Amino acid sequence: MTNFVYLSKERIRELEKELTDMKTKGRKSMAERIAEARSHGDLSENAEYDAAKEEQGLLELRISKMEDLLSRATVIDITNMPKDQAHILSTLTVKNLNNAKTYKYTLVSPEEADIEQGKISISSPVGQALMGTKVKQVVQAKVPAGLIKFEVIKID
Known about the structure:
Chitinase A, domain 3, 2 domains, five-stranded mixed β-sheet, 3 helices
């Protein structure tokens, strides 16, 4: 599976730092926990040792997945994208026509999505509906709660 993952420069830097921390501090901490558990004697009946080894496996799996993600990462270049149309990394101010509330969303790749920070995935129903829109355009998104209508107020 060699499909590309589009990420912002900032997100790539965050992931690289997290990966470095896991490889250094995380592995060191895990080795210390295993050594401590090993010092408690018989490994065949040592639940602390088993738990530490399992955690080590999970850490290595996370490291492997992050390395794979970063190996497929492509930085998004928005310089040639239209300014009047929503695209990945656009920040949109939209009005939910169902409840008359205004929201600000940044369209991002699924790997960067974080609704609490207003970052919505371009593969989500709302993200898909907003991709390619222009100011004053009304779109609708089918979400688990039903159909939501949005009016695009502003695109940054």
